């Protein structure tokens, strides 16, 4: 297999444009398209006992919501002609996208430009800027 | 009292506090008399319940092959997620289960309880606290392994576990004695409700109030005669979270507690480092006291008993509470969580309690003739103040945060116990929550003595059915844990990315 193209998505307009761009790119290269959504989560966050009790159930709900509200509509928008591999997982967004790129042998990572506030970006960095620093393959940010 | 009643308004307030004390003091002494039934060795009383807990720790230490010493390395790997499959992302991690359990144990037991131990048993009590901590690691491992093994997933997907479930299901499955298991489970649940109201609530409210009074002027504090007002304020916020379901407060607390714990440990390190030349002498005092070489305090037995007692109160090993907090973790191997639980008494008793003890000993606060009168959190606070004069204010914030988070965690334990008895009835759980809030006010109003009496008795009562169950289920625990160790040794269970 000649690898894949990976697009990281959320429910933003920029994500939709990134998916279109990624679809064209995958078509041109004749490879599959990995459509990945990461639910922000940390294994080291502090939780209450009630949250722990419900966590398993909540996780199912989060995965279901991500699938029906974000990933499925985007997959449907791609149409025929490209093999799409949808992936949803909990974790750190930039780190997981890089991990997926390795797992699916992606030649290229695409993301939409996120609309985080300047302050938040200054402190934590945006997902695209983190990606650029840690990715092993070219990263394209679609505005 | 006369000083306070000179001012007009406090008379009423003072009498509220007094009346609460009047009603509860005899109840406290009665329960204490039963739970702390003691045998006399020479001129020292040895409460059998303390022996009961220590014996359980010693038994499981030997029975499980000293995993309290050999296990922590593997526990750290588990916490770092080395054995967590990527597909399990989003579930409750080992770290989260441990942190939740710790937020219930790291609290005033570590700050005030240690001071109580040293005030009564002398510096030597510290060593016995550490020994009890090491033994406690084994009982904690045993109970948390069972907590996960026999946890229950309800139809709505929520997961809960704890002694109620392993006593009922475990004993029924192993021995076929359905009634024995059920009776022990009910006894545990009843005492857990008491423990949650006593140690998990009144003791916390009491000591947090004491520290608030200490930093707002001590004997001249406006709150001296208005302790119940502080209690009402506490009860209000506890009620907002547990009855009102205001999650944001709980979330803030969960984040504040680790921060406060870090600040506490850093401050403790500062005090220790600035008195570094006194540390060897402090250890000398601790050892001498522990083996009864100084005749100043109760001698070896006195130091031992009070050390063991406060350690058990602080790390709750053998009490069964932690098994409730550890149960929802995502793992297919119950004993993996048993390993993680080993670290709880390690952090709680061996690290945090020892640091508090060192501070009290090296700053000479323990040698102060007023030490035993000061008692509790006031003694720890005074010890810190000798090096960092403004620290009592920070300590007050930390104490309030610790007390609050411990109350929230224990209200959950109490609620689960209530739920067990009343078939998860919402009404019963709500009634429990209201009672819980009322006892916040009562705990804040009383003097330390009766509060410690009630708190200890109720908490230690939980250990009777729980430890009995641990002995009955010892074979199950051993099979589970040793099987798991064997699987790791031969590579059947391997770190993620290192599978065969």
Architecture per CATH nomenclature, i.e. the level-2 architecture of chain A = 3-Layer(aba) Sandwich
Number of helices of chain A: 5
Helix content of chain B: over 70%
Characterize the biggest β-sheet of chain B.
2 strands, antiparallel
Element order of chain A: H for helix, E for strand: EHEHEHEHHE
Structural class of chain A: alpha/beta
The strand line-up of the biggest sheet of chain B is: 1-2
Count up the domains of chain A. 1
* Number of beta-strand segments of chain B: 4
Assign a percent range to the helix content of chain A: 40-55%
CATH topology type of chain B: Amino acid/polyamine transporter I
Provide the gyration radius of chain B in Å: 22 Å
User: What portion of residues of chain A belong to β-strands?
Assistant: 15-25%
Q: Which structural class matches the secondary elements of chain B? A: mainly alpha
Proper CATH architecture of chain B = Up-down Bundle
Superfamily (CATH H level) name of chain A? HUPs
């Amino acid at each position: 297999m000649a690898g894949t193209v990976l697009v990281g998505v959320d429910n933003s307009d920029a994500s939709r444009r990134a998916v279109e761009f990624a679809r064209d790119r995958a078509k041109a290269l004749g490879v599959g398209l990995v459509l990945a959504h990461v639910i922000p989560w940390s294994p080291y966050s502090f939780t209450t006992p009630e949250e722990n009790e419900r966590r398993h159930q909540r996780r199912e709900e989060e995965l279901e919501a991500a699938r029906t509200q974000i990933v499925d509509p985007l997959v449907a928008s791609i149409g025929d002609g490209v093999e799409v591999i949808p992936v949803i997982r909990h974790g750190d967004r930039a780190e997981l996208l890089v991990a997926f790129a390795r797992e699916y042998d992606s030649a290229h990572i695409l993301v939409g430009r996120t609309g985080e506030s300047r302050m938040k970006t200054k402190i934590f960095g945006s997902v695209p800027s983190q990606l650029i620093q840690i990715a092993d393959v070219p990263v394209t940010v679609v505005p | 009292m006369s000083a306070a009643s000179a001012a007009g308004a406090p008379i009423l307030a003072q009498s509220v506090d007094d009346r609460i004390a009047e009603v509860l003091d005899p109840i406290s002494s009665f329960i204490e008399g039963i739970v702390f039934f003691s045998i006399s060795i020479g001129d020292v009383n040895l409460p059998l319940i303390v022996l009961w807990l220590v014996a359980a720790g010693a038994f499981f230490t030997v029975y499980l092959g000293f995993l309290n010493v050999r296990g922590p390395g593997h526990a750290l790997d588990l916490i770092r997620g080395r054995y967590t499959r990527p597909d399990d992302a989003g579930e409750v991690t080992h770290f989260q289960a441990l942190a939740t359990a710790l937020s219930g144990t790291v609290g005033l037991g570590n700050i005030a309880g240690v001071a109580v131990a040293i005030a009564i048993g002398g510096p030597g009590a510290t060593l016995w606290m550490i020994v009890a901590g090491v033994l406690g690691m084994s009982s904690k491992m045993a109970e948390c392994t069972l907590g996960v093994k026999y946890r229950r997933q309800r139809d709505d997907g929520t997961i809960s576990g704890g002694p109620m479930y392993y006593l009922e299901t475990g004993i029924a499955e192993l021995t076929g004695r359905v009634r024995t298991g059920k009776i022990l489970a009910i006894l545990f649940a009843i005492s857990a409700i008491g423990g949650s109201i006593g140690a998990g609530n009144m003791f916390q409210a009491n000591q947090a109030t004491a520290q608030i009074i200490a930093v707002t002027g001590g004997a001249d504090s406006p709150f001296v005669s208005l302790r119940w007002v502080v209690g009402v304020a506490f009860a209000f916020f506890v009620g907002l979270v547990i009855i009102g379901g205001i999650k944001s407060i709980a979330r803030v607390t969960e984040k504040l507690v680790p921060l406060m714990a870090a600040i506490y440990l850093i401050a403790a390190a500062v005090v220790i480092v600035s008195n570094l030349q006194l540390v060897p002498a402090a250890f000398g005092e601790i050892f001498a006291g522990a083996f009864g070489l100084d005749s100043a305090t109760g001698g070896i037995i006195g130091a031992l008993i009070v050390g063991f007692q406060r350690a058990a109160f602080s790390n709750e090993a053998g009490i069964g509470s932690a098994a409730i907090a550890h149960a929802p973790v995502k793992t297919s191997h119950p004993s993996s969580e048993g390993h993680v639980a080993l670290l709880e008494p390690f952090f709680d008793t061996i690290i945090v309690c020892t640091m508090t003890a060192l501070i009290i000993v090296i700053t000479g606060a323990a040698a102060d003739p007023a030490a035993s009168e000061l008692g509790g959190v006031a003694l720890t606070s005074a010890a810190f103040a000798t090096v960092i004069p403004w620290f009592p204010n920070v300590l007050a914030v930390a104490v309030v945060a610790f007390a609050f988070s411990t109350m929230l965690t224990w209200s959950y334990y109490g609620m689960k116990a209530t739920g067990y008895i009343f078939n998860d009835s919402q009404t019963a759980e709500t009634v429990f929550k209201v009672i819980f809030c009322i006892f916040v006010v009562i705990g804040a109003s009383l003097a330390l003595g009766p509060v410690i009496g009630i708190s200890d008795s109720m908490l230690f009562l939980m250990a009777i059915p729980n430890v009995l169950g641990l002995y009955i289920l010892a074979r199950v625990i051993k099979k589970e844990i040793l099987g798991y160790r064997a699987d790791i040794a031969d590579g059947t269970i391997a770190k993620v990315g290192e599978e065969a």
